[in-house]
Amino acid sequence: MTEITGAPGRRTLLKGLAAGAAAASLPWYVQAQSAEPIRLGFQLHRTGIGAAYGRWYERTATAALAQLNAAGGIAGRPVEILFEDDGTDPKRGAEVVEKFANAQVDAVFGTLFSNVVTASAPRAGELKMPYLVCSEGHHVAAGLNRWTLQPGITDVKSQVQAMAPWVAANLGKKVTMIFPDYAFGHDHRDFFSAAIAAQGGEVVKLIAVPPTETSFTRYFPQIPAGTEVLYHVMVGPAVLTFVKELGEFYGTGDHPAIFGFIDSLEAVNIATPGLEFLDGSHFWEGHPRYLQPGAADHETAYRAAVGVDDSGASLADAKEVATYAHMFSTWETLFVLKAAMEAASYKTPADRQAMVEAIEAMTTFAAGPDHPQGDKLFNGKTHQVFGHQSISKVESGKLAVVHTTSIEDGLYPDEVDYSTMSF
Question: What is the C-alpha to C-alpha distance for residues 46 and 85, in angstroms, rounded to an integer?
Fold first, then answer.
């Protein structure tokens, strides 16, 4: 790994381990084309409140890169990824995008936290830099700029719209929501409130929590009596504290049905002492952490490539639990970039616009090695992908999928048409 000076944070240059061997096995005319690598910038939450995600986003992108280069790279050219820490900080995020542009990378991808995305995307647009985010916010489909796309993971609006009918039919219709007080949490607040209302339910209380909060006991007494479903989504390094304190608040007594987004337990072992009260509760998962019965071969191959076991824990250290519900987005986005660059006959940064137009022309992604989370539809007008959602139940310290939505469950009318916008 090579340190590059002059960046706002640590930047590392990662080359796929198998790139040299793969290139050596290619015909001479392909090798001649492959002397100049394609260079991608990865905006990484290595530090800050997104660090748990960043650690696994980096590992997943690294594993995907190794497979991509072992198969010949992109159009016969090796691929390099520059990882740059943005500190999960909006201002620094925009600076990272500018540094990547100055380094003449071919595209930037990887960002997760919505506040960083919304601060960075305008600068990417000004610099005419393809900016592929791996987030869940509704920011892209609501309208940012033509250079910003989200082809690797669904957004909150789609997720909650798809799952609200199941929640209303199986858990209850009077909902209290606890959510982080920033853009991602506001998406949950706004879109789930609308989705449950469409099912004849209502949100009886909204409890917003600062995303940097470290103790949550003062928020729980705000949960109204008569709440049938407690809907929670939390982020940051204190997520384990959040769920433990929630269990302490309710103790062994009666409590509402609990429906959470796995964000509240990402990178946390569900069998951790103090979480027993979660048994029987339900979670949204973008990609089920525990290997499910009948899993496809590409799912087991993906687990092996990213280095996790059947429970979603690291093969190197079982105490390290992956952010499995989200990190697939970096893998899938890299392979979308490969498909787009090859379709656009990409050669230099002068072809960035053609790359974006190639992504806009995409319509479907088939489940398989490039898309291990599952098949998807891509809307080129809104730059947003749509896929399946899983609702999993906690059973004896494990997660078992009890419901999988259809792609159609999460579709919604277009709010923007990027294809009519200027570059």
Answer: 5
- Tell me the domains of the chain and their CATH numbers: 2-154+324-387 (3.40.50.2300), 156-285+388-410 (3.40.50.2300)
pLDDT in the model for residue 252: 85
The tokens describing 327, both together, are: 């990190």
Closest-CA residue to 308 (of 336, 330, 334, 327): 327
Separation in Å, CA 163 to CA 148, 171, 198, 314, 372: 27, 11, 12, 29, 21
Six-digit token string for 225: 């009596």
Distances, alpha carbon 218 to alpha carbons 203, 208, 223, in Å: 20, 12, 11
The tokens for 302 are 């993906």
With vertex at residue 223, the alpha carbon angle to CA 389 and CA 209, rounded to the nearest 5 degrees, is 70
CA–CA separation, 96 and 118 (whole Å): 14
Name, in order, each residue with C-beta under 8 angstroms of 329's C-beta and a sequence gap of 6 or more.
134, 152, 153, 286, 373
Neighbours of 345 (CB within 10 A): 11
| Closest CA relative to residue 284, chosen from 333, 357, 231, 334 | 231
The 131-132 sheet, strands edge to edge: 2-3, 11-15, 79-85, 38-44, 107-109, 131-132, 148-149
Summarised one tens digit per residue, pLDDT across range 261-308 is 999 999 999 999 999 999 999 999 999 999 999 999 999 999 999 999
The type of residue at 298 is: H
| Residue 217 CB neighbours (<10 A) | 11
Residues 262, 281: contact at Cβ < 8 Å? no
Output the pTM of the full model. 0.91
- Integer Cα distance of 312 and 274 in angstroms: 20
